Amino acid sequence: MKKKIIFLFLFVFILVTFSGCTHIEDTNGAEDYTIETFTDDDIIKKSSYSALGFVETNINGKITIKISKFSGVYEITSLNPKNETLVFTVESKCSLGNFRIVLIKDDAIIRDILINTTEKVEIENANGKYIMKIVGESANFSLTITK
After folding, report:
1. Are strands 55-59 and 62-79 parallel, antiparallel or unpaired?
2. What is the pLDDT of residues 82-118, one digit of tens each?
């Protein structure tokens, strides 16, 4: 039994060590949340990340995400409205690292959503594909989006 536990522990350790989970260091200080590593082009085109303590729920249009340590680019949601008014509220809190929330349409970032606050986003006559992504560098954060 002891050998099985030791084997299981070693297996998990090796899996975590070699799984490619790397975090990007926060190099611009605790009070500056500006993303340093990813360009706008990276954010628009990529979606790969590394996360520890990742919890995401989506209940009745309310998305809640909490992550202890996050680095990379992650697509939260995409919408395809047809001449509709998009309305959603984003509440975020970043306590460590660098963090950014963006809204993308037609391969362009059309809006940065403020962090460490609650912001209502409204887009009238929305048409096409809208994508919301988060970007982080060793970020510890919580986020709630209510549609």
Report:
1. antiparallel
2. 999 999 999 999 999 999 999 999 899 999 999 999 9
- For residue 74, report the phi and psi dihedrals to the nearest 5 degrees: -135, 130
The CATH number of the domain covering residues in 22-146: 2.60.120
Q: Please give the C-alpha separations between residue 114 and each of 24, 28, 91, 93, 147, in angstroms, as whole numbers.
A: 21, 18, 9, 10, 17
Contact yes or no for 103/111 (Cβ under 8 A)? yes
Partners of 82 in the β-ladder? 127
Distance from C-alpha of 25 to C-alpha of 36, rounded to nearest angstrom:
10
Amino acid letter, residue 50: S
Cα–Cα–Cα angle for 118, 50, 61, nearest 5°? 40
CB 94 within 8 A of CB 140: yes
Structure-token pair, residue 64: 């809640």
CA distance 57 to 88: 16
Domain ranges of the chain: 22-146
Q: Token pair for residue 105?
A: 């349409």
